[in-house]
Amino acid sequence: MNGIIFFRSQKLEKIKDFYLNKIGCKLWLKQTDCLIFQAGNMLLGFCDRENVDQNGIITFFYPTRKEVDAMYRELIDIAQKAPIMNSKYNIYQFFALDPEGRTLEFQWFKNKMKAI
To answer: In this model, does residue 5 exceed pLDDT 70?
Structure first.
């Protein structure tokens, strides 16, 4: 099964620039008032609306800790704190906010995950 998570947006052009140029997503589909981005096997849709969705956390995970550190360096101006090792979940992570205030998490699983 495939899926897309959609969010309401009021700053579609800023969102486009951010997810393409800062996060490294690809533009999967452009519709009249919606943009759908691809990051690995995840699809995120943002549609121009009067209200903004800010609930939940968009999590990007990486195969190596070095890649999380590289994203931190790219996003240091919007990161909430430097990456830390979270012993409860055995992940290395940091959080940031997108241009509309959505929480983003960037993580590496210490115990390698195998693709399903």
So the answer is: yes
- H or E element at residue 90: none
Rounded Cα–Cα distance for residues 56 and 48 (Å): 19
| Mean pLDDT within 16-37 | 97
Question: What's the CA angle centered on 72, arms 37 and 36, to 5 degrees?
Answer: 5
Domain at 83, CATH number = 3.10.180.10
b/e burial code for range 82-106 (CB count within 10 A of at least 16 → b): ebeeeeeeebbbbbbebbbebebeb
Q: Which domain holds residue 77?
A: 54-116
Cα gap 82→96, rounded to integer Å: 10
* Tally: H helices and E strands in the chain: 2, 8
pLDDT tens digit sequence for 90-108? 999 999 999 999 999 999 9
- Which of the 8 DSSP states describes residue 100? T
